[in-house]
Every structure is written in C-alpha cells, then in structure tokens.
Amino acid sequence: VVASCRVVTSISDIPTGIPVHLELASMTNRELMSSIVHQVFPVVTSLGLNEQELLFLTQSASGPHSSLSSWNGVPDVGMVSDILFWILKEHGRSKSRASDLTRIHFHTLVYHILATVDGHWANQLAAVAAGARVAGTQACATETIDTSRVSLRAPQEFMTSHSEAGSRIVLNPNKPVVEWHREGISFHFTPVLVCKDPIRTVGLGDAISAEGLFYSEVHPHY
C-alpha cells in the first residue's frame, strides 16, 4: 500500500483504519507538547519533525538528552537517533501498547533520518533518499539536483547512539544511505545536498515529509 495524504481539521475527523501523518510545528508551550506526545502520538501512524521540534519534544517529555539546551551546530546523529528510538519505544506501537505510531521522518539541514518499527513499513531507503533529493531541488528551485549549486555538509562519520554502545559509521559516497537497527526499530540515514543559495524554503519540511511518504509503503495492521 503506498502512503497517501489527506488533510483533516481534528483527530475525530479521521476515519478508522486510515494511516495518518502528523507534521509537527515549532512551539514554546511545554505542557501543550507533552499533551501532544501522550494524547496525539498514539493515534497517528507517522510523524515528521525537525531538530528544534525534536529537542523541544524531548525536553517537554523528559526524554533522552533533555538537559541539552540547544544543538551545537549540526545536531549530533547519535543523540537524534536516541530520541527517535525513545519516541517509538515509549510512545509507538508494541505488543503491549495500543499505539498506531510506527514511523518518524526527521529532517535537519544537512541530513535526514527515517526511523520505523519493523514489520510496518517498506521502501525506507527510497523514501528517505527522495526526501533529501526534494530538499535540494526545492530550495534551489530546480527540477533536478544541480551539483554546482549544492554542497555536502553532513558529518562524514558518526556514532549511531550515545545511550548505549552504538556503532561508528563512516559514510560511503557510493552508498550514501546508511541503515542500522536497534531493538526492533530500523534507522535509515541520508546526507542532504544543501543548496548554497536557497530561493524557496517556505514549506520545505512539508515537502520533504510528503515526498518521503509518497515513496513509502505501509503494511496495514488494522
């Protein structure tokens, strides 16, 4: 089943059995964010967010690395991975929890990560790569990636976790999408070719998530 999108105005408008994607937006109310985590996350299938939203989420819900006040430059991949893992482990679907959440698409300027609960999604490699591609083309307002107008700024090596003994990954230019697994959750990382002089940035996060969903395959468990 290829994921599709439908805009609704409230949770009650969502028909039973329809996969739902929630794209977070920046906010400053921790109580509101905490209520979204506990009340809204269990009834959505997929989540999209950036580095500011991810950090505010873990601060609001006392998750991993919540003592961090802000990212120091490029968000640390291992820290991001730890928070994504925690969201899916604590608030995602499991045998003991009646939650629909099985997918998170994280996007920051220089890289993206797609985290999915095993057995619920397929084609993650193509999905995360598609999101990264549209980030470069939309920002530069081009139909395809123009290599003269983009640059690679993603970390060339990183740890997959800081909460446990993670692996050290060294990027291979010939296989830029990296995959790793942790307790029933799969992670797909891709660097982004960043537009040097961006022209169109409004709605870029929405475009990234939408493109990723377009290439995703969801396995219904309803």
Automatic annotation (TrEMBL):
The family database entries (InterPro entries) matched by this protein are listed as:
ADP_PFK/GK, Ribokinase-like
Q: Name one Pfam family in it.
A: ADP_PFK_GK
Record's keyword annotation contains Transit peptide: no
Provide this UniProt record's keywords sorted from A to Z.
Glycolysis, Kinase, Magnesium, Metal-binding, Transferase
GO CC aspect terms: endoplasmic reticulum
Gene Ontology biological process terms from the UniProt entry: glucose metabolic process; glycolytic process
Q: Does the keyword Heme apply?
A: no
What's the name of the protein? ADP dependent glucokinase
Q: What is the protein's species of origin?
A: Mandrillus leucophaeus
